[in-house]
Design goal:
This protein is α/β, with parallel strands linked by helices and 438 residues long. The chain is built from 15 helices and 18 strands. It folds into two domains: 270 residues, Queuine tRNA-ribosyltransferase-like (TIM Barrel), CATH 3.20.20; 94 residues, no CATH class. Belongs to the queuine tRNA-ribosyltransferase family.
């Protein structure tokens, strides 16, 4: 993996660049659609590529449970398994997360109204993760060496360590993978945040060590098979000449470390210094935030992390947050919001979100947005999409998701171009003024 900064944003940490992976380039800043189970819900890979996405992210935890990382490896890796190919037949870049977010979603957040971003920190929502099972229902329990997960599919118990997470991700064969971490609840107190941060740092070191070990094993395996081929001991085209986990001659994945620390400035900076000092290829900015101080937390971290390596803000994707992230040095974003909202009938427009099932859209024969070039807007009217949702037809969610992903993916592309054109702040002000006018 190679990262080149093309242009820096004046008076801020923002920049535009190109991230070159084993399967092609990602022009940054970029939005990464989430394909949790090797599929962006309700869309085909072709549809995701057609709307402008250059890279997608899949979920380690879910793919480990179903269909299993070893099966994916046998299929040739995620690229082959889900046919993530460009129009010229070449594979596109892919990412996998570590499963660390499930520590939060299946642990502290399970059964409670706690999200990654909170406007109000309410201690009454706290689920102390280190207490016994009688305190609260949850599917994840944290230990010092890893996390015990209870499968949401069949109730079976699985123990995932940093080493296990990295092994799974190498089997899945993405271009960029993440270290295993603990994503804490925004309601946790400082004492627990400190404890969790130390654990995340230990897990980062272990993730990195396991990754480096696997990379060396893969190099040795490839060198051995090439040597056998050179001596005529292997027939041309033998599968033994391929790397065992990725199914290609391309390089091993790049590994990103994850910065945690919650809402506390000292913890965030401490984490950025520690993770930034390790030999990671890039960095994820993880954890949960209060909406009002997310910008400060991202700026604390980006100001410390090495400038020459890419930064990924995990799980953030609302339009206003994208501008904030880019301005504060973020290169990549991922979020389920565009497709999740789309499947539920909430659709992005330049004037804000609309609820397509509202009465006024039943006889609205205009497209979602007249100047939008997405497949949905070029071919369908609001009344038809509203009809699909009222009739509970699956196509409704697909069409809304196509538009939402197109809107977000191409918004970030426009943000990138505004940096190259020295018009970022002008574009930001103009867009947000219109977006918040509804």
């Amino acid at each position: 993996m190679y990262f080149k900064i093309e242009k820096k944003l004046n008076n801020s940490l923002g920049r535009a660049g190109v991230l070159t992976t084993a399967h092609g380039e990602i022009h940054t800043p970029a939005f990464v659609p989430v394909g949790t189970k090797a599929t962006v819900k309700s869309l085909s890979p072709d549809q995701v590529l057609d709307l402008g996405a250059e890279v997608i992210l899949a979920n380690t935890y879910h793919l480990y449970l179903q269909p299993g990382d070893e099966l994916v490896a046998k299929a040739g890796g995620l690229h082959t398994f889900m046919n993530w190919r460009r129009s010229d037949g070449s594979f596109g870049p892919m990412m996998t997360d570590s499963g660390g977010f499930q520590v939060f979603s299946l642990g502290a957040a399970y059964g409670k109204e706690i999200s990654k971003i909170s406007k109000i920190t309410d201690p009454s929502l706290l689920i102390p993760e280190r207490f016994d099972d009688s305190d609260a229902p949850r599917l994840a329990k944290i230990g010092q060496d890893g996390v015990s997960f209870k499968s949401h599919l069949d109730g079976s118990i699985h123990y995932i360590t940093p080493e296990k997470s990295i092994q799974i991700q190498h089997n899945l064969g993405a271009d960029i993978i993440f270290a295993f971490d603990e994503c804490t609840s925004p309601t946790e107190d400082l004492k627990y945040q400190e404890e969790a941060l130390e654990r995340t740092h230990r897990w980062a070191e272990r993730s990195l060590a396991e990754h480096q070990k696997l990379v060396e094993e893969e190099k040795a395996s490839l060198a051995g098979s090439l040597s056998l081929r050179a001596r005529g001991a292997l027939p041309l085209g033998s599968s033994a000449c391929e790397t065992p986990r990725k199914g290609t001659f391309l390089s091993s994945p790049a590994l990103f470390g994850i910065v945690q620390g919650g809402r506390d400035e000292n913890l965030r900076k401490k984490s950025a210094q520690f993770i930034g000092g390790l030999a990671f290829d890039g960095y994820g900015i993880g954890g949960s935030f209060a909406k009002e101080d997310m910008s400060r937390a991202v700026k604390w971290v980006s100001g410390i992390l090495p400038e020459s390596k890419p930064r990924h803000l995990l799980g953030i994707g609302e339009p206003e947050d994208l501008f904030m992230g880019v301005e504060n040095g973020v290169d990549l974003f991922d979020c389920v919001a565009p497709t999740r909202l789309g499947r539920n009938g909430t659709i992005y427009t330049k004037k804000g979100k609309i609820i397509i099932m509202n009465k006024q859209f039943r006889d609205d024969f205009s497209p979602i947005e007249k100047d939008c070039k997405c497949y949905t807007c070029k071919n369908y009217m609001r009344a038809y999409i509203a009809h699909l949702f009222h009739g509970k037809e699956m196509l409704g969610g697909t069409l809304a998701s196509i538009h939402n992903l197109y809107f977000i993916v191409n918004l970030v592309k426009k943000i990138r171009q505004s940096i190259l054109d020295d018009k970022f702040f002008e574009f930001k002000e103009k867009f947000l003024q219109k977006y918040k006018s509804r």
